[in-house]
Structures are given as structure tokens and as C-alpha cells.
Amino acid sequence: MKVVPLRLAPGDDLRRTLETWMGEQQELAGCVISAVGSLSVAQLRFAGAAEATTIHGELEILSLAGTLSPDGAHLHIAVADSRGAVIGGHLCTGSLVRTTAELVVCLLPEWHFWRELDPATGYPELRISPLAPPVKSLSSSSTIDTVLAPLNAHDLASFFSTGHAGYTNYYTLEPQP
């Protein structure tokens, strides 16, 4: 796991900047773990709505969470206006930083996130794959069932063709010795 602090400047498009930044990274998966700051414009899509709603004003970022991949992001945000009224939804492009946006992003080098259109939802939904197959732990004292092995194309192909037989769904964030 690699943790990266970011600061966005006034006028930056919060979503577009995060997506552009993620596309420039060598990693294939990430998530937003912390965000504070303010927006002058928030473009939010509410549950069940087809289009974004534009909110203007001095808006404080209360929360921002979501997943990042080189081909897009899925981000939810909650903001408060100058009266303290809170509103939240799916963060869309066009949400502009007012004074600052201070973020902490976690990059996940062991994983690959990408998005594919899901016919059931009509949206590009997250797909997840480990970059290396899990191997059984050699440590009898380990409480983790599996560790990540170095990427090996043959083992990776075998891992996916066998449907992960014999492996658990638990992965460590860093390979163990």
C-alpha cells in the first residue's frame, strides 16, 4: 500500500483532477481515504437521478470516499453549505475547488481496478482482480491465510483458469517474507 497526500488549488475540478492524476500513476487501483476543503460549485448526482444537480455557494467538504482506477472513478461526497445544511451524492465533473482540497489517497499496487458497463445497472461498474495469485502462507504463526506471490504469468493464468480453487479471499497488503 502506498499513501499519497494531494492538495488541489482553487478552480481545480475535483473529480477530473483525481481521475487525471490516477491515470498518470503506475498503479492500477486506488481509493480516497480522507478529504477536507471547500467547493464553490458541486455537481452531484443523487440516487436514481439521470442527471447531475448543480449547487453553488461556499461549500465545505465533509466527506469524500470512493475508488480510483486508470479508466475512471466512483466517488461520493458530502458537503455543507454556509447554513450547515448537508447534502451528498455521486461526485460529478464540474465540482470546483473554492479555497483548497486536501486529500489522502491510497494506491493499491497488488490490485487492478477497472470499470465495465454492467447491463443490469447501466453504469460502468468496478471490476477487481489481484495482480498476483495468492499462495498458501509458509508461516505457521501467521494469522493471515494467504500472501501475495510475485507476479508470474503462468501462475496467474493457472490461478484464474482454476477459479481460485483452494484459496481464501483474504490478501495481505504487502508480501510477507
UniProtKB/TrEMBL annotation:
It comes from the Bacteria. InterPro entries: PPC_dom. It holds the Pfam family PCC. Transmembrane segments: none annotated. Residues 1-129 form the PPC domain. This is DUF296 domain-containing protein. It comes from Cyanobium usitatum str. Tous.
